[in-house]
Amino acid sequence: MPIDDASSPRVPLADVTPPIALGPLDGRYRPTVAPLVDHLSEAALNRARVEVEVEWVIHLTSHAVVPGAPALAPDEERYLRDVVATFGADEIAELAEIERTTVHDVKAVEYFLKRRIAAAPEALRPDTVLPQVNELVHFALTSEDVNNLSYALMVRGAVREVWFPAAVALSDEVAALAAEHAAVPMLALTHGQPATPTTLGKEIAVLAHRLRRQLRRIASDEYLGKLNGATGTYGAHLAAVPDADWQMVSRTFVEHLGLTWNPLTTQIESHDWQAELYADVARFNRVLHNLATDVWTYISRGVFTQIPVAGATGSSTMPHKVNPIRFENAEANLEISCALLDTLASTLVTSRLQRDLTDSTTQRNIGPAFGHSLLAIDNVRRGLRALSVDEELLARELDGNWEVLGEAVQSAMRAASVAGVAGMDNPYERLKELTRGRRLTAQDMREFVDGLGLPAETTERLRNLSPATYTGLATALVAHLE
After folding, report:
1. Range of 131's domain?
2. Has 315 been annotated as catalytic?
3. Which stretches make up the Adenylosuccinate lyase PurB C-terminal domain (predicted)?
4. Distance, C-alpha 155 to centroid of its chain
5. What's this model's pTM, rounded to 2 decimal places?
6. What is the domain count for the chain?
7. Torsion of Cα atoms, 180 then 185 then 191 then 192, to 10°
8. 191 a catalytic residue
C-alpha cells in the first residue's frame, strides 16, 4: 500500500534554522573546502567588487586623472581600504538589503561604498576630502570592468592561497612515497597481464612527475583583466576627460592589482585565461584520478594494505572489510570537478557580439569546481597516509612469474647474434614457444639459458637474473623527482 504523504506531514527542512545546505560542499564536506569560501563565494565576490571600486578611486586621485579631484591623504586611503578589510557579516547583510532595491549587484556595491564615503566626516575627521570624490566611485565603469577584475582577483587568490598549496603538498607526498619504495621490486601488469618487473617506487614516481608537470603549467598561468568601458572603447572615459591617457590609466590600474592587462576586448574580458587555467587544473585532476584508480587497484591486488582506523566501519554487514573509500571518494569528486571545469572553459570563451550574460551565472560555479578538486586532493592525501606495502606478496608474485625473463633472454640472444655468435636464430620465436601461456620455474629458465650456447659471461648474467632483480634502472629513475 503506498504511503499517504497527506496523512504524515513532515517538518519542512527548507525552514530549519540554521539553514541546511543543498549541496555536499556546504554541508557534509564543509570543513575541507571552507578556505575557498574566502575567495570564491558570493560574499567574496562582493568584497572583491568593493576592493576594485576602492582601488579605482585611489588610483584616479593619486594619479590626478580627473581634473579638480583632490589628492587623498594617507589616512583617507586607509579609511577606504578598511572598508574592504572589515567587510563581514553586517556588510554582507547591508549589501543584500541595498540589492533588493537596485536589483543589480554591482550598483548595490557602488551605493554601499558611497554610504561609507558619506560617513567619512563623522567616522574619520570633519575636514576629510572624501565626500568630494563621491562621484569617482564607479567613474566611467561598466559592471564588467568591476566583475572581470574581481573574478581575476578571486580565482588568483583561491588558486595561489588554497588550491595550489594543497596540490603541491599532495604531489610532494606522492614523491616521498615513491622515494621510500624506489627499490621495492614489483611485477608489472600491462593489459592486466604479468610483464617486465619494475619497482613500486618508480611507478608511483611516474604519477608524481605527471602531477608536478601540470602544477608547473598552473603556476605559470596568467590572470588577465580589463578596464575600458561598455564596449571596450573608452567612450565614456574620453567624453568625460578627453585629455587623459586612458589606455595608460587602465593598464597601470590593472597591473596595480597584480593582473595582466588585456588591451583589446568587447564589454567583457574574453575569459580565455580562465579557460586555459581550468583546462590545466582539469588535467591535473585527471592525472590524480589515474593515481586514485591505480592505488585502488594496488589495494585490490594486495600490494597496498590499508591501516585500519580505530572505531571505523568498512561495511555495514561484512566486518572484515577495510574499503578504499578515500580513493573512491576522490575519483567521484575529480570527475565532478572536471565536468564543471570543462563546462566553464567551453562556455566562458564565447559571448554573443559585445555582451551576453551567460558568463555571469557560469562563473558563480567556479567555487564548486575547485571545491570538488580540493576535496579529492584531501581524500587522496588521507588515503595515502593509511597505506602499508606488502613486500612479501610482491616477492611471491615475482617468484611465480619467471616467464617474464623471456624478454631479457631473447634480447640478449639478439645482441649475441649481432656480435656473431652462432645458434642465435629466431630468438623471439624461441622464447615465445617456451613461455607463452605457461608458468616457468627458476629451474626451467636456467636450463633453457644453459642450452643456448651464449658466451659464458652472458650465460652467467642471465642465470643470476631473477624477476626480482630484473628491474633495469627503475630505482635510479625515481631520482628524476628531486
Report:
1. 36-136
2. yes
3. 351-471
4. 12
5. 0.93
6. 3
7. -90
8. yes
